[in-house]
Amino acid sequence: MNQNAIDRKFESYLRSRSLKLTPQRRRIFERAFATHQHFSAETLYAWMAEEDGPRVSRATVYRTLALLEEGGFVESLDTGGELVYEHILGHGHHDHLICVDCGRIAEFREPRIEELQEQAARDKGFTLLSHSLRLMGRCGACARSAASDR
Known about the structure:
The protein is of the alpha+beta class. It has two domains: about 1-90, Orthogonal Bundle (Arc Repressor Mutant, subunit A); about 95-150, 2-Layer Sandwich (Dna Ligase, domain 1). The protein is built from six helices and six strands, in the order H-H-E-H-H-E-E-E-E-H-E-H. The strands form two sheets. A three-stranded antiparallel β-sheet has the order 1-3-2. Strands 5-4-6 form a three-stranded mixed β-sheet, with no helix packed on it. The longest helix has 14 residues, at about 5-15. The protein starts with a helix and ends with a helix. The mean pLDDT is about 90.
């Protein structure tokens, strides 16, 4: 999906909720889609404070992220300590590996896992609509550091 289509979809979503596309909402939306990294609401707020443009309050960041998530523009991921977001339109489904020490997030796709999850749902009589898989562990650097501390 190209950026113009995503923009139109966001504007349409706001109209359906009787909300306006304010300069602040536009800034937050554009910044969220300008990055390919996972970000927290606080990180997004910091980006807004550092960059030129209409002033954006912390509350507006949190409310706009909630709108973006409700509308299916971003997804949140609980990393076990902080909620982070990523934009999802135009990106295929993927799962996450999360380092419990440094917070690093690695994305991966594994068709065998996907098939097993779909089969498990069918076996239980479920129609799978969506799912999220997050694997918690230590990244290579943190595992090496933990091993050297022993």
